[in-house]
Amino acid sequence: MISRLWPRTLWMRVVLGTMLVLAVATGCGSLEVKERELVFRVQKGDAGWYSGLPAGVTDLYLPVNDAKDSPRIHAWWWPDPDPKAPVVFYLHGTRWNLTGHLRRIEQLRSFGFSVFAIDYRGFGKSDGDLPSEQTVYEDARAGWRWLVAHERDPARRFIYGHSLGGAVAIDLAASFAGKPAQARGLIVESSFTSLADIAADLTFSWIPTSILLTQKFDSVDKIKSVDIPVLIVHGKGDRYVSPHFSESLFEAARMPKKLLLVENGSHNNSMWLGDSAYQQALGELFGLSGAPEGDAHVNGRAQAH
Questions:
Q1: Which CATH number does 5-304 carry?
Q2: Alpha carbons 124 and 118: distance in angstroms, whole number
Q3: 222 CB contacts (<8 Å, ≥6 apart)?
Q4: Closest CA to 192 of 251, 240, 257, 241
Q5: Domain ranges of the chain
Q6: Helix axes 5-25 and 28-40, enclosed angle (nearest 10)
Q7: Is the dihedral of CA 82, 84, 85, 89 positive or negative?
């Protein structure tokens, strides 16, 4: 990802400025396509820092639906040696495919999770060219079906989403509302309330972001219906997505919940910079081994130093 605030702000201004021009010149169809291209910024090839899969990781290709010609998504399955280990369903954000997320996946493994991670259509080795909000939601559900079939115990299933993947994770968790427990918990890192909110935060106040954007990713409304414990994590030094978005998500979420703000954490490094506080939060909220357990109905704000 780009390393300074101004290019990120410039990128969002370019997104919305381009959309304004297209709206006038070409109509809604071209507008939506360009918006999706600029929002997802798909990189098909391996990340430059990727050096290969660790031992024990299995490549999978999963059909999105039951149709004979269903597109397939690429996934990684990395089981812990302990067959009773909790399993986390990893949903990544924009631009980089799975190869760009291996370090965070390795960190989750070090916390004692088995990890199941997918690339949405258009990313990496998955079928398709250009994702949309709807297709990433569908892909998450396809991945979840595989996970449920391989881990029957909902008490060992967790959902994790980073950045835009946090919005996908919240949508998936919200789809379980009112049903018997499907997962033990939801973990959302470095995410936002809605795409329109983040666009407004990074651009000019006069741009009608909520009207222009067709990709909504409206997490703040959806998280209100999530009825499993929620851990929300954000780096206090995040220059891309302000931590106030996670604070708003936390306020909207139901109990039990916990907010972890990592001192000096950036958009991408909060998990390893706040390693011990992260593990403590997992123990306090979810009672996971390897970290001290606390009140299951905690709603405190933790800070990692």
A1: 3.40.50.1820
A2: 10
A3: 170, 171, 174
A4: 241
A5: 5-304
A6: 170
A7: positive
Q: Which residue has the tokens 């809605």?
A: 194
Whole-number Å distance between alpha carbons of 267 and 136: 21
Type of residue numbered 155: A
Q: How far apart are CA 154 and CA 87, in angstroms?
A: 10
Cα angle: 303, vertex 232, 9; to 5 degrees? 90
Written in H, E and C, the secondary structure of 166-211 is: HHHHHHHHHCCCCCCCCCCEEEEECCCCCHHHHHHHHCCCCCCHHH
DSSP annotation of 239 reads S
Query: How far is CA 280 from each of CA 56, 122, 291, rounded to the nearest angstrom?
Result: 27, 36, 5
pLDDT digits (tens, 9 = 90+) for 71-99: 999 999 999 999 999 999 999 999 899 99
Which residues sit opposite 233 in a β-bridge? 189, 260
Q: Provide the β-strand partners of residue 189.
A: 162, 233
Residue 181 DSSP label: P
Q: How confident is the model at residue 226 (pLDDT cuts 50, 70, 90)?
A: very high
The span from the CA of 266 to the CA of 278, in Å, is 14
Residue 43: CB atoms within 10 A of its CB come to 16
Contact 266, 292 (CB under 8 A): no
> Residue written as tokens 């909060």?
270
Residue 209 has pLDDT above 90, yes or no: no
Rounded distance between C-alpha atoms, residue 280 and residue 294, angstroms:
9
How far are the Cα atoms of 89, 155, 227, 278 from residue 184, in angstroms, in the given order?
Answer: 12, 5, 10, 17
Q: Which amino acid is at 8?
A: R
Burial of 182 (0-12, 13-18, 19+ CB in 10 A): middle
